[in-house]
Design goal:
This protein has seven helices and five strands; from the N terminus they run βαααααββαββα. By secondary structure, it is of the alpha+beta class. The N and C termini lie far apart (74 Å).
Length: 199
Amino acid sequence: MTSSRKGRKIELFLVAGEQTRGEQPHEALANLRGEEKSVKALVARWGELLASGKAKSLNLQVRHGQAGLLGDYLAPELELQQRLRDAWRGDEAALQYIRNSVTDHMATTWEFRRGRIEVAADDLWSTVCILFLCDHAVHKTAICANPDCQSPYFIKKRATQKYCESGPCTEYAQRQYALKWWNRTGKQIRSKQARRKPQ
């Protein structure tokens, strides 16, 4: 964000939960496992997903008697997670829902500190939406190409990145690369060497 006077730059920071490196809150929510323990860990680390009374304004349905239960109801966390996952996959309706969550339902607190503006959203969902939309706009949101990945929703560090950086996925990527090399080049080399050997 740049002010109009003398082209000065004003830094704008989005503040959310515990300030740690590594997984971002939108990755954490997208990869959340559907059990109560995981939801509680997410809330403990990043804060409440929704401000009090906000579920109704976001048209969230509390559904009874379905899979993914927390107690006797489907938690709003899991419904919002599904919207986020759908948007991550490129579903236009889900993307619009996330845009609307920010433009229609977000409340913030602004503080001016050390020459920068710190913006704190009223709940984690607003922060998740902003961070996701920023990463999505620059094509950084991706789904790991390892079909067995435990946390497939990730933020790319390189435009060509197809796999997240967890250990099993790195190993899977190396095996896929080796197989591709063998199918493209290795068979030809072996065939030439076999023809050169005296019978």
